[in-house]
Amino acid sequence: MAYGSCRGMRRYVNRVFELEKRLGGMSDSRVDPTVPLPPIMKTWIWAFMRRTASTEQIGNLLKDARWRKRVGLTDEDGGSPDTAARALDTLKLEEIQEQAVDLFLVARREGLLKDDGPFGHRGLIVDMNELFCSESIHCADCQVREKEVVRNGEKQKVKEYYHQAVALIWASGELPWVIGWEMLHPGEGELPAALRLLDRLLPRVRRSANWVMGDALYCCRPFYQLVHAHGLEGMAISSGVTEMDGDIELLMKTEPGRMTPAQVAVWEYESEAWVKDVKCKLRVIHCERRYAAKSYKHERRSLRLITTAPVEVLPAGQAWRVGRCRWWIENGTFNILTRDYQLTHNYRHTPTAIAVLLFLRSLAQCLVQLYRRFATARSQDAPKTGVEWFRLVLQDDWTRYLDTAWAEPAHLPALDGG
């Protein structure tokens, strides 16, 4: 097809990212495995790119004779849902984290993630997502809370188990890219895990970004201190309880705000309140919209940013757009992952497997969008919507791709897309 195919996508991701080679080359601590690791990892990533909804369906793919030929499995090799899931437990978390960063940097070097965001500067967003709520399925690393339920007409308190993970997201172009995940330990809050994630990733990606932004939870000294120490600018939505909030509110009472062309009133001042800890002044920027917003959009009335960024990085007039982009990126990224890539579905409940699957899900989302952009760039008859393109290319063409396995040589080189 002129606007893409499964064969074309496999060739594309292997040519640009060496994807299957990377995934298949990870350390495998299994002893006498019934299925080699490379076919298992190829099956998982392609299952996610095709939005496969369950572990059983992934196991069925691993047993499909056509797919087995595509990934080089022999009749002697095994294959089942349990095999595919258990293999994830044997991977090394450090290798997964390293591959996640490397693939992001490849996308940057290849010009696939451009600095074409709405504010002209390269930014990262950090936020947490909750996963796998269950009253029965749990592991030693689960978070636990009590909730009240009604059963047989009576209220009861039961334990609910869940996991949480913090993500660092590239937020400066049309394609948000999840660079890395960090799982929360039992009883741990979001901020310690986020600081751990930032301390691990910022040295690797600092040349690809100018600033890091978080919600009101990140409006604290440790966040600004860590980000600034790595040479980037920190931004956070104001928590409303700092000494700087009282100062900006006094300023708003004594001076009229400066009106921007976008019909947003802006107040700004520099504070030395946290200079001793952060090692730089903080700018407080308060914005209030003066234009009428449609009620169904539920658009907020005001926004307050506290940042280490100088005017050259963040002019006060852009604070409204920068602050609002956080919700667009976060909600868009997590909503798409939840709706299309089964973010909250528990394929395998062990900490290592969860981390691997988070990486594969978010990577699959990005690769599908990248290939769609590549395949449709010069096509005159490409489907207008992503939903229609996905159905025609990654669903309908998948059957044709598998059926032609019998007519082609086995073990085609990865670069050719098998």
Summary, kept brief:
The chain has 418 residues and is of the alpha+beta class. The chain has helices at 6-17, 19-24, 37-49, 55-63, 65-70, 81-89, 93-109, 190-205, 221-229, 243-254, 275-278, 319-340, 351-376, 386-403, and strands at residues 123-134, 143-151, 154-170, 177-183, 211-214, 233-237, 258-259, 264-271, 282-289, 302-307.
Describe the structure.
By secondary structure, this protein is an alpha+beta fold. Among the domains are: 6-95 and 345-416, no CATH class; 214-312, no CATH class. 43% of the residues lie in helices and 19% in strands. Strands 1, 2, 3, 4, 5, 6, 7, 8, 9 and 10 form a 10-stranded mixed sheet that branches. A hairpin with a 6-residue loop joins strand 3 (154-170) and strand 4. Helix 8 (190-205) runs parallel beside helix 9 (221-229). The longest helix is centred in the last third of the chain and has 26 residues, at 351-376. Residues 412-417 have low confidence and may be disordered.
- The computed structural class is alpha+beta
Question: What is the overall shape?
Answer: globular
Helix content: 40-55%
For the CA atoms, what is the radius of gyration?
Answer: 24 Å
Distance between the termini: 17 Å
Q: What pattern of helices and strands is seen along the backbone?
A: HHHHHHHEEEEHEHEHEEHEEHHH
Low-confidence stretches: 412-417
What count of helical segments does DSSP give? 14
Give the oligomeric state: single chain
Sheet bearing the most strands, described? 10 strands, mixed
Mean pLDDT over the full residue set: 90
| DSSP strand content | 15-25%
Tally of DSSP β-strands: 10
